[in-house]
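Hi support team,

I submitted a single chain yesterday and got back a structure, but I'm not sure I'm reading the token output correctly. Could someone confirm the output below corresponds to the sequence I sent? I've pasted both exactly as they appear in my results page.

Thanks,
R.
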Amino acid sequence: MGITIHYEVGYDGPFTTIKRKLEAVAQELQKMKPVQVVSDDSLLSCDIMEGSEWFVLDFLNKRYADPQYRDDKLKESAHYARGFTKTTYADDPVKAHFTVIVGLCALMEQGFTVRVNDEADFWKGCSIQGYTDDDLKRLATMFGRDHRMLAAIAGQIKDAIGGELVAPITERPDFEHLEAEGRKEQEE
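Hi R., thanks for writing in. Yes, this is the structure output for that exact sequence:
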């Protein structure tokens, strides 16, 4: 549960150029001030911030072998990677989500083909300048609803089991407030 951004990335250029291109993407990600960014040969790995899952792509140096995807041009790319990053539990989920967007846009600018399924419906394609303050406010509102819903569900589970529930949402200092708001929204 929680908002996640899923991505698939393909590249048909020479494998020897991937390292240089991923280094350029890593430089763009560094501008977002993550905990750590590593680019090594065919791997890009970004520890965005506390609470967020990592943004990771590991490119295969071969065509995607599964025959069920023969008609999918992206998965037939010479080099293919896919992944997902749950941003809901990040200390700053809006910044975490936008950092993934920055990385995906940087990949496109480096000639990679990118396909995105953004559960926040925030992805607009490759134009960082296309995002406005209103877009970021809408994303923040969506994360707020998500947190309230998760807190309400966690509270219901705690009540049902009659004890403690270990979950990222229950560790928040404002959990009880979020739970109350979420339950109120469920009743409406």
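A quick pointer for reading it: Residues 135-187 form one domain. Let us know if anything else looks off.

Best,
Support desk
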